[in-house]
Specification:
It contains no helices and five strands. The protein is an all-beta fold and 63 residues long.
Length: 63
């Protein structure tokens, strides 16, 4: 499996948000993440970076 893990950057600190992300949808300032188990998270953020080799999605929280 090649699913990525999502992290959120808040005040310069990274925190794991969701593992095994299979789907990512952007709607305005909200990002919806869904993993392979159907668990979902919705967060006000922007995509800061994506690294396929590290399987890492880095989101930056919006205040």
């Amino acid at each position: 499996m090649c699913e990525a893990h999502a992290y959120v950057l808040t005040d310069g600190k990274e925190e794991k948000l969701l593992e095994n992300v299979d789907e990512l949808d952007v709607a305005g300032e909200e990002i919806r993440l869904v993993n392979i188990f159907g668990e979902q998270k919705i967060i006000r953020a922007r995509i800061k970076s994506y690294n396929n080799a590290e399987r890492k999605i880095l989101l930056e929280a919006l205040q």
